[in-house]
Q: What sequence folds into this?
């Protein structure tokens, strides 16, 4: 898929995320908006996975360790045709499969997640199975930065490196905020790049909200033979909506009617600008 | 009755035999290959053995990822660490995600008795009973262990198996039928029933011999599967005998005894009833046999419990 089409998709996904959170009156707004461009590029540019091949043992796998940002995943999976977009209006309702964290009850979801620090071990096991069976599929997992305080992520990192899992890509949604405050204020993570290097990953940093930059970064996978790849994706929490960006309170705040209206207008403007650029008006 | 091998040895032998014929059977260990007697497995089938180091949470998560691709995965680690430190991984990555890992708690209960409470697992039945979509089996002897490991291969749900490392009495005839979820009556009796699980079955069977000398007819049930529970076997025993004694290598809270008690109440059955297990106190230490004897999980102790209970209950 071309970058321009994906840029428009990111706007559409942001609309979808806000709409489902507004309808259900719950959701993880900030984190979904920060990781959304990464999911866009994964599903529309990088991974070989679709509703048609979802049960093929050779499909690429995505495991969302930061399960709370499920709204971003739902938006992308619906767009990929895993389920009807209208289903998302049942988010968090009684008996809906579309709950506040990923589950396999939803078509397209690989693993039930939600408790932090679990996705990387699951991804390591899945990637290890590919090595044992000499299968060609790749495994991608998305971790939040706040999540890195869970020690199990570092246990799993040691195993990923030990078994030389170059079919594994770990993406860190480095939005620098968590529910309480900034990550560096809650429990210092830095120097994060040096930590991942020291653990033995092949590490690339990029702007995790820049579609073109993400495409370029993913083009280089695996970053080094015999090493798991790690993308330290610097993102903005609440990305795309001016008053949500980089603010702690939008971790799981639901927009009011007025805020929703402003957000919609901002997305309208982003869409109009993208279309204008493409048609050569500007 | 004669002593056989440790259930641990039988587990390791059986798994090696099965895995030799099926390359999708994998063992994952957390620096526990020695404790798990899996050295020969790793030597014979190095590509079917995954080592993750001393990291039980990662052990279970990696095992779940492997199982998600269709592998038959045995995650092997001492029960004390596996079911405490990695409890959330068992709950979420195995049970909730329905990744059919075989969670193998070795040196369970008070197998590491002299090493102190850090190394005891008195909580695992209670903790795992309350987790949806995982079943629990504790084999009593070599026969049950071999059968349980074989049955685990195609078992359609996540499964927890736990056993110890000391030689066990052979309790069963070789032609006994073993099925997960179906209790085995080792000995018929009409006065009192021992409902026992895992390595606490043997002392109950020996106590029954002592009681027979006193003319007390004792039924002994090996309730090797705590979940799903064989309700019919318990209810029949409550109907047929006037006293029930549960015996487990576990806290008296949340294990076999309380499972039986709740079922009896729901069915309005009130036999004389005693739960034998470990009380809520700073645990005695020593060998498994010494700790068993300390808390009355011994032939003498259980025979005394049975006599006392029967005296308290008028003949029907």
A:
């Amino acid at each position: 898929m071309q970058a321009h089409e994906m840029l428009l998709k990111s706007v559409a996904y942001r609309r979808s995320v806000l709409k489902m959170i507004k309808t259900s009156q719950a959701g993880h707004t900030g984190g979904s908006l920060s990781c959304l461009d990464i999911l866009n590029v994964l599903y529309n540019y990088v991974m070989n996975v679709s509703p048609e091949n979802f049960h093929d043992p050779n499909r690429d796998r995505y495991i969302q360790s930061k399960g709370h940002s499920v709204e971003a995943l739902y938006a992308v999976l619906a767009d990929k045709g895993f389920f009807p977009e209208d289903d998302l209006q049942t988010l968090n309702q009684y008996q809906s499969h579309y709950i506040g964290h990923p589950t396999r009850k939803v078509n397209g979801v690989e693993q039930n997640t939600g408790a932090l620090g679990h996705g990387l071990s699951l991804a390591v096991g899945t990637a290890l199975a590919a090595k044992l069976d000499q299968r060609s599929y790749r495994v991608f997992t998305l971790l939040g930065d706040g999540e890195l305080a869970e020690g199990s992520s570092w246990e799993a990192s040691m195993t990923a490196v030990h078994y030389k899992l170059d079919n594994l890509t770990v993406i860190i949604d480095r939005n620098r905020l968590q529910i309480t405050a900034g990550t560096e204020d809650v429990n210092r993570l830095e120097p994060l790049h040096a930590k991942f290097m020291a653990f033995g990953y092949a590490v690339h940093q990029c702007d995790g909200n820049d579609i073109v930059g993400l495409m370029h970064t993913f083009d280089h996978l695996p970053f080094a033979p015999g090493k798991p790849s790690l993308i330290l994706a610097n993102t903005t929490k609440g990305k795309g909506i001016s008053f949500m960006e980089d603010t702690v309170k939008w971790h799981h705040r639901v927009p009011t009617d007025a805020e929703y209206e402003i957000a919609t207008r901002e997305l309208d403007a982003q869409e109009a600008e993208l279309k204008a650029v493409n048609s050569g008006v500007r | 009755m004669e002593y056989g091998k440790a259930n641990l040895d039988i587990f390791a032998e059986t798994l090696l035999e099965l895995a030799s014929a099926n390359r999708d059977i994998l063992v994952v260990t957390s620096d526990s290959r020695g404790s798990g007697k899996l050295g020969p497995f790793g030597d014979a089938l190095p590509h079917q053995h995954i080592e993750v180091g001393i990291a039980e949470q990662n052990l279970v998560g990696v095992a779940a990822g492997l199982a998600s691709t269709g592998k038959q995965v045995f995650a092997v680690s001492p029960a004390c660490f596996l079911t405490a430190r990695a409890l959330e991984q068992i709950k979420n990555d195995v049970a909730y995600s329905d990744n059919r890992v075989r969670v193998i708690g070795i040196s369970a209960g008070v197998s590491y008795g002299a090493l102190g409470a850090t190394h005891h697992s008195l909580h695992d039945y209670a903790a795992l009973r309350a987790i949806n979509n995982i079943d629990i089996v504790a084999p009593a002897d070599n026969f049950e262990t071999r059968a349980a490991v074989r049955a685990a291969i195609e078992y359609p749900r996540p499964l927890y198996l736990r056993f110890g490392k000391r030689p066990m009495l052979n309790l069963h005839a070789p032609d006994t039928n073993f099925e997960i979820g179906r209790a085995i009556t080792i000995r018929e009796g009409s006065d009192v029933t021992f409902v026992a699980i895992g390595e606490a079955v043997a002392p109950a069977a020996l106590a029954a011999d002592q009681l027979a000398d006193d003319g007390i007819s004792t039924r002994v049930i090996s309730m090797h599967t705590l979940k799903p529970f064989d309700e019919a076997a318990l209810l029949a025993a409550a109907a047929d005998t006037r006293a029930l004694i549960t015996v487990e290598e576990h806290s008296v809270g949340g294990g076999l005894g309380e499972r039986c008690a709740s079922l009896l109440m729901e069915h309005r059955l009130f036999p004389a009833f005693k739960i034998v297990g470990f009380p809520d106190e700073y645990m005695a230490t020593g060998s498994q046999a010494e700790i068993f004897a300390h808390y009355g999980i011994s032939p003498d102790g259980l025979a005394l419990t049975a006599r006392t209970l029967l005296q308290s209950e008028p003949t029907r």
